[in-house]
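INTERNAL AUDIT FORM
Audit reference: QA-55
Scope: verify that the stored structure record matches its stored sequence.
Auditor: D.O.
Record contents follow.
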Amino acid sequence: MHVFKRPLDPVYMEAKISDLTRQNRFKDQEIARLRQALNDQKFDAERLPKLRKEFGNTVEGLKGLIEATTQTALSIENRGLIEEIHALAEGKRNLQIVIADLDTELANAKKERLNANESLRQMQESVFRGQDQPEWGTDTNEAIANELETLFKDARMWCKNNCTRRLPEFSGNPEELPAEWKNVIRPDPTILKHERVPLLILHALLMDFIYRQIFARPFFFIPWRRINDEDEKADSESGDIPQKYQCQLYLENLLEEILQGNPEGGHAWRSQLLRLLDPRLRGEKNERPQLKVTKTRSQAAHQDAAQHLMGSFVKEYAAHLTCKPSNEALAAKELEIIFQTAVRMAHKLWLRRSSLEIQTLDDLPHHFTFDHEVLNDNPTALDGHLIRLVVHPAVLVRGKSDGSEYNDARMLKPAVVWMG
């Protein structure tokens, strides 16, 4: 094949040479750049261990700085906590001192309150004594017990002087005994034959009657108390209950209802009512005449009550056990004194805010116990024996003169019992 060659063009050749020259210059620059990069890499490779060492030192220094900073911060925080603990301990000591002072003040306050209450109680008793009649006096329990013992002995002496020596024929059958006898005796054919039984039964009936009808009833005299001078003492029937007893029963039931809800208030009302019916007479010119009238009517009612109750006892309780005395007037007078004494003592005790409690045969234990608080002192050898007869009921008092502590009972006179 024949190839035709283009003739060399000077312009073309010059442009071609210029282009080649430019390309060579670019390659030279690239080679120089590559050589510089290679030199730089060689420099970095030589400096790297030094840089690593410097970096390590820097890191270690930084760690030490961090540790030092941390220790410093912890030390500062610990000092703050320690100071706070000390402050709390000091506050605790101060608080304990304050609490101790408050406890002392509280104890002193309680002591002062007790002293104040005692002073108030003594003041009240002083006021009561200042306002009371002589028969209103706040006798000690010991003095009252002595009076009750004297009444018991006087009653026994009267019974001894006026008692029959034999029991009536019906006594051989316990079922035929009068109902009032069963208030004091647990009948047994064997003991009824004992020679001491007539006197014991009469004495027991007398004490039981006095305590049931007088001492156990604060308004015992009301049926015989007149409201005006035109009142008649004759019994007027109203149903099955004499009219003169209706007021007494109403007052007793009313008092019982009040006591169930308010013992303090009930006893205060009862005491105040009885005192109003037995007012203190000062003897002053401006004293109201009605006070004397009221007092006189109450005193007359007490006398009438004693007379009427004595008659009821002789006719209904003692008829089968008394003999005809050699001196009937003297026997009647001695028994009248016994009833008048009982009326006076019962009224005097009920004027107080304290309350009486009478425990008879049904209230006492069936068998004797030496250390029982309401039985009289007898040898322990009698423990366990059946109580056959209650000669004298147990007499207890509840509450204080200031109208408090009605749950606490104090013995005035223990029961006197007979085991056969």
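Auditor finding: record pair retrieved intact. The chain has two domains: 9-131, 141-418.
Action required: none
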